[in-house]
Structures are given as C-alpha cells and as structure tokens.
Amino acid sequence: QVQLVESGGGLVQAGGSLRLSCTASGLTYAMGWFRQAPGKEREFVATTTWTNDVYYADSVKDRFTISRGNDKSAVYLQMNSLKPEDTAVYYCAAGPLPRTSPTTYNYWGQGTQVTVSS
C-alpha cells in the first residue's frame, strides 16, 4: 500500500502561481495529478514516470510543469499563469502506467484545494 500526502494548495489571483507537492511512502512507475471542480468529473492534469516522461492535458500545457523528485518518491506540479477555471481540488495519484484515465491509478492522495480568483 502506497500512501500519498499532498501540500501546496491555496488561494491565488488570476495570473499567479502555485506549486503543489506530493510525497509517496513507496515507489510507483507513474505519478500524476488530477483535479475535480464542483459538479464535474475528475479530470487528468499531468503525469510523469520515473524515467521522466511527461504528459499534459491540453488545457494546462505550457502553463503547468510536472516533475519527479530525485529519489522518485515525490511529484511536483508548478502551476503558472493560473486562471479561474483552474479552480478545483487537486489530487495526486500513483500507479503502474502514465495514463490519462483515473482508473489506471491505484493510489490517491486526500486532495488539496486550489482557488484562483478573477
């Protein structure tokens, strides 16, 4: 069983930046971020592998950067040029494959709120 702990959410104005962190109690090949806004389904944001392959949703490409810690047990999400539509609860996820479907991931963090004001 792998436990994930997120941190770094908060309130920021549009155009601002936030950095999310997620630490894992074990190693998995893929670690990624998903988000869920009120009344919407959980959606893919970005994912990376321990060989540093990265994949992004089109809506965040060129604004967000995902990275893996040196020991591969942590994943980070640097979010720049934030927009109000980025407001959501952000979840860290870990699993065997770097896919965009949440069903691919075995382990989930508790979520951290990101709110972007206009």
Q: Please, could you describe this protein's structure?
A:
By secondary structure, the protein is an all-beta fold. Helices cover 0% and strands 50% of the residues. It has no helices and eleven strands. Strands 2, 4, 5, 6, 9, 10 and 11 form a seven-stranded mixed beta sheet that branches. The termini are far apart.
Backbone CA Rg = 13 Å
Catalogue the unreliable spans. none
Question: By helix and strand content, what is the structural category?
Answer: mainly beta
Question: Kindly state the mean pLDDT as a whole number?
Answer: 96
Order of helices and strands: EEEEEEEEEEE
Q: What is the tally of beta strands?
A: 11
- Specify the biggest β-sheet: 7 strands, mixed
Write down the oligomeric state.
single chain
Range of strand content: over 45%
Overall body shape: globular
Number of H/I helices: 0
Fraction of residues in helix: under 10%
How far apart the termini lie comes to: 40 Å
